[in-house]
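User: quick one, fold this
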Amino acid sequence: MISTERQRLTSGTATTPMTQVLLVTSDNPPTTTADVLVLWDAWRPPNDYAGPWVSLPAEIQHHQVEFRDRYTSWLAEVAATSVGGATLADRLIIRPGLSYWWLTAPAEFTYAQTSLADAIVRVMAFVDWAERQGVTSVTSALTGAEPNGTIADWCRRSRRAFDLLNTERRRQKTRFSGTPLFAALRRWALSWRDARDAPRAIQPSSARSTVLVVDYLAHLRQDRGAQRPGYWATLPELLRGRDAAVGWLHVYVPTPSTPTTGDAVKLTQQLEMADGEPHAVVQASAPLRVRLGAVRDYLRVRRMRRILCRSEHRPLLAGLDVWRLLVDRTTNSFLGSEAMDNCLWLRYFDHHLSRIPRQDVGIYLQENQPWEFALLEAWRSNGHGTIVGVQHTTVRYWDLRYVKQTPPGGLRSSAMPRPDVSLLNGPAASRALQTAEPLGGRVTEVEALRFLAAGNAHEVTQIAGEATGPPRLLVVAEYDPDYARDIAQLVNETLEGASRRRERIDVIWRHHPAAPEMGLVLPRVVRVDANTPLGTLMRECDMTLLGEFSSALAEARILGVRSAVLPPARTLATEPSGNQERGDAATDPGTLLDRLLDAARRRTTHETVSAPANTLFHRDPHLPQWQRELDALGLVERR
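Assistant:
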């Protein structure tokens, strides 16, 4: 049977102490008994489990404002840790004005299961809950040595019993092919092979350009029979109308359509033919000597890790010693493929920006990723002009790259480069980024270029209020396979619940466009639709079920359709519960079914079901706010 909410232990203080809890992951179902089952990365226990349980993802969501504040404050304290008379961040200076610290833990992709934030926040959530409930004994089936070590240390300090299931007792030997050094060398070799095999025609343009646009080679759009960069809507036309000579520098990320750097170079050649402007792939034109310089930087970064490992002062986080987690989860940033990537970025951007004429203005996509700091450092060291960061998508609550904090009082704490100007895409971003430090010296709002077309009449057939037949649920799958499987499981259980209640519902499944085939087993009653415009499907259905990573969530907000969100269990949830700028959270099949049936009954009701689009993004297609910013940048409109 499906576990009910009566068996779930919610936040609060137990009336009597518990003797033992068992920590399990979704990949290691319970094999022994305990007073309470603690789910490390799941919203609900297996269907055949009938005992008391608690979900750590639910605990995190309930207390995440407090947990995020604790974690970011601790990271700032780590950066300010004194090492040999200087802060840790200052000891990790790799270029004038750039500390390597900002390319490690503060720059990580927080939603990866291997992220430092993910591990520490889960440990915090467990310890907080266990202290409130009076837990006296912990048995762990977790597979990570570092979370286990941190929890075991907390148990020892607080005089609680700790035991580890036998699955973790055996030490496994690491083969050479799995070492960080091998991964780094392999990454370097692959980068050189790809660049060597790429067409030789791409070189930095010698023509005088005044504006350099830096973006990903992705989200291309069709325009008059040709592909064009899709992040910028009509901004390039505005720039050309101001006599700005535009150049393009693309960051290449492998995709099914462009699996190699050579494919990316061929694509940029097509873009150049379409608009007559220079396009380059930043990874493609660096010769062997530049890449060998990255190896020298990598060896220096490896030595930097000793500073972290040998630090005598180790700040505690809410009484927890999580330094072991910090050292473990930043291994890749200092020793592995991420370290090599960071060093290559430093060399790529310096090489390209040192060989082109001085650019008056640079415009780039701002998410505060490592390559962006390499761009900023190279931009300034090569004497270019004003550089502008553009926040181009939604701001997720746990994307901590936006909330880096510089150490107070550091002699060189300016070693976190920032753009001169940061442009935010609407009121929602301004609210989310009120205290974000990596923003530019001037911060203002402009139109959300990526979302200008969402909900346009030519894309959406509005038939809301005229739907007939059974309740219809649209399911928009996520890119991550585990996340997509979690969504599919919730849909399956919702269909089972509807069958038991003798309710008929129709379900339409939409694969993620970048991951159309995941091997998911869907019930035969689920219809897969990959072709109908997403906005049309949203209007045709009574409710849309989404994950929190997809840009489809922003489209649902703009359209004002009823939506439900399954927060990620294996990674950090992204929004505080109750946030009116998102759909209501749905982790239980019974609750999801009730909401769907209620939405179907309200088909002819026109109440507001989400925040109005103008409270989220600016979407004026004439771009008046962008026009104002271009004036401020000295790009005067042609008369």
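User: anything notable?
Assistant: The two ends are 72 Å apart (CA to CA).
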